[in-house]
């Protein structure tokens, strides 16, 4: 009797816990699409699980310890129960690989982000030989070829779609080149097929993912070509992409904002610091002037385009002048929806052993930056009050009496819509706002002008 029949008969349930970025979310969904083929069912209740999969993130401090802590929690939960098969996937699995199996015997399998297409065979071997397994080869071509034969059934109103993986930039603070490998761009038509399948199954917005998404280049097809091709898919309403590097904001990509009808006017472009000195120390390969040139060129095309970004505060060598330059840049560009963190030394990176800035100073600087980012967001949201926005409705709001959606700027909007509005773009008059959310009323008279 084949493994699938066996597992089906045993009604195997998998619980998947995902840490980290949108790409880990995409990977977790695709992992489930794969193990479903051998009879696994998904459970949201980890106590019911026969298989416990942790999809891990390695981007910040204590990432590794967080995984062992989580395994410790699983051990307690299953103390008086049948031990589930425990799989650690994602970037910590890639960075730590067989060390994890040695350090924590409760773990049965370690699978890297470029090897999860092998999960069914690894599970099969585990069942047949009770052999612990580690799979951390970098093989994105084989992975995506395998995935292209398995339907992406995790489509939601707004769906992620990985188009590029890995990175060749080697910023001195970042582990991604080591945990996700060299830059790899998926075949153009393979992406289009997956996009069509998602839209045929109800997706209205596609968010194109890559660690360096604007470095996408497959046989001369660049991100600009992909956006213009994907937006031809009827039924698709919105296109977004993340995460970009300023160095790859090429002219053709900026030009797309002139022609595209579905590309949203929010550009997520991490800058990390406002100081050229720090950008050099980080090996970011661009200057602040080059960054502002991108900003100016996009604003010339559409003055309503807004920017969001990532900031690392307290990078080794950052002095008051450097910090002031970061703060001034945040005020100048008026970034919205942005992320900011204190520098976290990552093992194996160039910056791993650099002398840290006094923690107290870093904390004070982070607080100042976050207050300014919050202020930018509040100001932007206040300006939208009494305006009418196009909102893509994603689902019912928590109170189940209203609905939740997002504006063109990814800002959350809650309003008095109906379940039947889910999946639609609805004009909403904004009545109130706070830092993270806009509250409004559905406009039934469609002649109302949309902001
Ligand atoms: S470009 Fe981004 S993913 Fe690549 S090394 Fe730099 S921070 Fe990491």
Helices, strands, pairings?
Elements: H1 3-9, E1 13-18, H2 22-35, E2 41-42, E3 51-56, H3 63-77, E4 85-90, H4 91-96, H5 98-103, E5 109-111, H6 119-129, E6 133-135, H7 140-147, E7 158-162, E8 164-165, H8 176-179, E9 184-185, H9 188-200, E10 205-209, E11 217-218, E12 221-222, H10 223-230, E13 238-242, H11 251-259, E14 266-268, H12 276-281, H13 288-301, E15 306-308, E16 310-313, H14 320-333, E17 339-342, H15 359-383, E18 388-396, E19 403-406, E20 412-415, E21 425-433, E22 437-442
Parallel strand pairs: 1-2, 1-3, 3-4, 4-5, 5-6, 7-10, 10-13, 14-15, 16-17, 20-22
Antiparallel strand pairs: 8-9, 11-12, 18-19, 18-21, 19-20, 21-22
The structure holds iron/sulfur cluster.
What are the salient characteristics of this protein?
451 residues; alpha/beta; Rossmann fold; pyruvate-formate lyase- activating enzyme; OB fold (Dihydrolipoamide Acetyltransferase, E2P); 3 domains; five-stranded mixed barrel; binds iron/sulfur cluster
Q: How would you concisely characterize the structure shown here?
A:
The chain is α/β, with parallel strands linked by helices and 451 residues long. Helices cover 35% and strands 21% of the residues.
What does this protein look like?
With about 450 residues, this protein is an alpha/beta fold. The chain folds into 3 domains: about 1-140, 3-Layer(aba) Sandwich (Rossmann fold), CATH 3.40.50; about 140-385, pyruvate-formate lyase- activating enzyme (Alpha-Beta Horseshoe), CATH 3.80.30.20; about 390-440, Beta Barrel (OB fold (Dihydrolipoamide Acetyltransferase, E2P)), CATH 2.40.50.140. It has 15 helices and 22 strands. The protein has helices spanning about 5-10, 20-35, 65-75, 90-95, 100-105, 120-130, 140-145, 175-180, 190-200, 225-230, 250-260, 275-280, 290-300, 320-335, 360-385; strands at about 15-20, 40, 50-55, 85-90, 110, 135, 160, 165, 185, 205-210, 215-220, 220, 240, 265-270, 305-310, 310-315, 340, 390-395, 405, 410-415, 425-435, 435-440. The protein has a 6-stranded parallel sheet with strand order 2-1-3-4-5-6, sandwiched between helices. The chain has a 5-stranded mixed β-barrel with strand order 18-19-20-22-21. Strand 21 and strand 22 (about 435-440) form a beta hairpin. Helix 11 runs parallel beside helix 13 (about 290-300) and helix 14 (about 320-335) runs parallel beside helix 15 (about 360-385). It is globular. The model has no long low-confidence stretch (mean pLDDT about 95). The structure holds iron/sulfur cluster.
């Amino acid at each position: 009797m084949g493994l699938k029949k066996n597992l089906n008969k045993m009604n195997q349930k998998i619980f998947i816990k995902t840490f980290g970025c949108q790409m880990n979310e995409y990977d977790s969904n695709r992992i489930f699409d794969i193990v479903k083929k051998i009879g696994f069912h998904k459970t949201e209740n980890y106590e019911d699980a026969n298989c416990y999969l942790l999809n891990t993130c390695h981007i910040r401090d204590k990432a590794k310890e967080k995984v062992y802590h989580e395994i410790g929690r699983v051990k307690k939960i299953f103390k008086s129960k049948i031990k589930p098969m425990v799989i650690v996937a994602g970037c910590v699995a890639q960075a730590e690989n067989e060390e994890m199996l040695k350090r924590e015997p409760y773990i049965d399998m370690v699978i890297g982000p470029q090897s999860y297409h092998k999960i069914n065979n690894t599970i099969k071997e585990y069942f047949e030989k009770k052999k612990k397994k580690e799979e951390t080869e970098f093989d994105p071509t084989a992975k995506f070829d395998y995935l292209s034969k398995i339907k992406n059934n995790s489509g939601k109103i707004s769906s992620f779609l990985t188009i590029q993986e890995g990175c060749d930039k080697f910023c001195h603070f970042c582990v991604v080149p080591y945990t996700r490998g060299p830059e790899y761009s998926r075949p153009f038509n393979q992406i289009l097929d997956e996009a069509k399948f998602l839209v045929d199954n109800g997706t209205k917005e596609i968010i194109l993912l890559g660690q360096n998404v604007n470095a996408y280049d497959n046989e001369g097809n660049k991100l600009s070509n992909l956006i213009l091709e994907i937006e031809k898919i009827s039924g698709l309403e919105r296109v977004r992409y993340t995460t970009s590097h300023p160095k790859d904001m090429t002219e053709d990509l900026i030009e797309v904002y002139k022609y595209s009808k579905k590309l949203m006017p929010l550009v997520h472009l991490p800058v990390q610091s406002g100081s050229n000195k720090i950008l050099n120390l980080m090996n970011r390969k661009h200057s602040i002037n080059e960054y502002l040139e991108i900003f100016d060129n996009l604003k010339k095309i559409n003055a309503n385009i807004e920017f969001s970004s990532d900031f690392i505060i307290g990078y080794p060598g950052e002095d008051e002048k450097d910090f002031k330059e970061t703060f001034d840049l945040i005020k100048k560009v008026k970034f919205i929806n942005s992320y900011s963190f204190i520098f976290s030394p990552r093992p194996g990176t160039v910056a791993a052993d650099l002398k840290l800035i006094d923690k107290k100073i870093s904390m004070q600087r982070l607080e100042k930056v976050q207050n300014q980012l919050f202020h930018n967001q509040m100001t932007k949201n206040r300006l939208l009050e009494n305006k009418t926005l196009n909102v893509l409705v994603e689902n019912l709001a928590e109170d189940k009496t209203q609905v939740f959606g997002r504006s063109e700027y990814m800002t959350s909007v809650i309003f008095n819509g109906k379940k039947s509005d889910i999946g639609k773009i609805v004009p909403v008059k904004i009545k109130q706002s706070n830092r993270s959310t806009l509250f409004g009323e559905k406009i039934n008279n469609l002649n109302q002008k949309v902001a």
